[in-house]
Amino acid sequence: MPQSMQPGDAKAAEIKAVSIGKTFGAFHALKNLSLDIGRGEFLTLLGPSGSGKTTFLMILAGFTAPTTGRLMMDGKDITDVPAEDRSYGMVFQGYALFPHLTVEQNIAFPLKVRGHSSADVKRKVAEIVERVGLTGHEKKLPAKLSGGQQQRVALARALVFEPSVLLLDEPFSALDKNLREMMQQEVKRLHQETGTTFVFVTHDQSEALALSSRVAIFNHGELLQVGKPQDVYERPSNRFVAEFLGEINLLPLDTVELNGETAAGKFEDRTIVLNKSITLAGKKAVAAVRPEHMFISASPQTSDCNAITCRVEGATYFGASTKYHLRTRSGTSLAVSMPTASTSPIAPQSDVWVSWPVHQGFLLPDGG
Amino acid sequence: MIGKSITSRKILLLAPLLLFLGLAYVVPFLGVVRWSFTMPEVGLGQYRALMTDPLVQSVFIRTLRICLIVTAAVLVTAYAIAYVWVRGSSVQRMLAEFCILVPFWISVLTRAFGWLAMLSNRGLINTWLQSAGIISEPLALARNELGVIIGMTHFLIPFAVFPIASAMRSIDERVLLAARGMGASRTRIFWTVFVPLTYGGLIGAGLIVFVFALGFFVTPAILGGGRSVMVAELVYLRIFQSPDWGLGAAISVVLVLFIGALLALMRRFIKPAHLIG
Ligand SMILES: Nc1ncnc2c1ncn2[C@@H]1O[C@H](COP(=O)(O)OP(=O)(O)OP(=O)(O)O)[C@@H](O)[C@H]1O
Ligand SMILES: [Mg+2]
Description:
A: CATH 2.40.50.140; 6-stranded mixed sheet; 9 helices; B: 0% strand
């Protein structure tokens, strides 16, 4: 029985997925997916329901074999290594705690499997119980715990044997908003403390942006983009990523000219200057700007800004921010989100200028 | 009130069953209770006899022993069948279903005689073993306790499969995956996770089988060949062969009370719904 990592060993692993494909019958659940997961990083797999996130996680864990492609860990091919020998920590959707074992016994399970001495088991369990804040609940059965406490048990059980990789499948989807935010902070802290490689699945974009060192966006079994939260949010490489990560305004452009780092196109009668973050196949393109990057004013802002005229149609108050609903002259609808504190109310039906800094807008291909 | 009238109408739906139970079981049983106190004379004489009669006691002890052995044998076999039925490949599932359902189509009597044909001294098994030269004298497989145990076990297996399979089906697959992911071997997962999660089904199945076995009559009568009398057969013998109605009735009453106590115990452990699957 291999002993778990001794202190001093590298605890985090590096994983390389090469052209992973998975079919269920004629259905392609994953298509030619290549992804490098760095040592000790916090990678989030983000995508809508059915996009293949769980399938990919199950392949990483070794519960499912890929139809095509290879999986490497620290340079070794582990494609055919079964789950019980990979021994990654895993937190399942719905926790999957052992219902017949107490909190303590649940957490001790992986240690006992590894043949740790009972003194060692006792010490490690006590340590992690304390660390995840479950002190006083050691003797309870999972059914007697709240959702958040069950979540902590699942985390403790997955981390107690110091796995080189921790896989988490939508661990917080059953928690209410406050608890969710608390647990997010805790997972982030555990990541920093353990230094382990975390692969985290969610379909909640704000969770992905808040937690990760990098985000991988899935759709229909394809990996669309991987990057730091800021990069995927502010420089999405396609429309799906742009729209999935948050609300975005899309302005269809007429003629697009590319000159070096920037692109210029015509929207209504105004020239709009944008970042050229992608290469365009065709000539059709849209300008994309996030609502919080735009602002409303009575006169056009000119210094390094684009500006268009709009009519205010309404406003929604969100407390910290207020979202204005506007329409351009040609009928395109826009949303602009501004801090409530720094703006005086804008009357509905008034004509205004909407401006945004050149570096905040980017070019996307039209359609797709 | 609407709620109330719906409830009373639902009770109406149950009425035929309640009426049948009352007329076919409760009323006759009250008659049996009366016999036990009045035959041949009024008093507790039959119960006193029951406590002291060595024959009656040996029959009670044999019944308990046979029922315990049968229950254990049934649980082990039914567990294996339920496992294949719930977790096997589609072919294995079909095979298991066949094993579970076919016995329901064949009467108790036919099955008991079928076992007799297999197990008796000149039955299939002994003939085969003798012609193969493995044994010279026939093995005593029937007309004794062993025959009774084999026949009863076979009869009772399907009744245990349902509650056990129901418990197995309600296990969350991810819990087993989680154990695997932590490095546990398949054997370890089976014994430390899978089996403990089916204890409810096992207890329910065990109680059903045990209670059912206590009242067995046909199978022990045929496969025991009169040498391995169980309680139900003793009642029959007392009432129909040695007209000793009072003692027969007293034995029945004790048996019913014992089963009642067991069922009350069962209710404390598991919900009735778990037993059906
Ligand atoms: N064992 C299977 N057999 C057939 N199809 C499957 C199987 N497992 C997954 N799929 C299909 O593969 C696709 C991807 O499933 P997957 O569970 O990976 O999605 P997901 O991104 O995790 O979605 P969610 O956010 O809803 O959990 C789905 O269309 C699903 O129906
Ligand atoms: Mg999923």
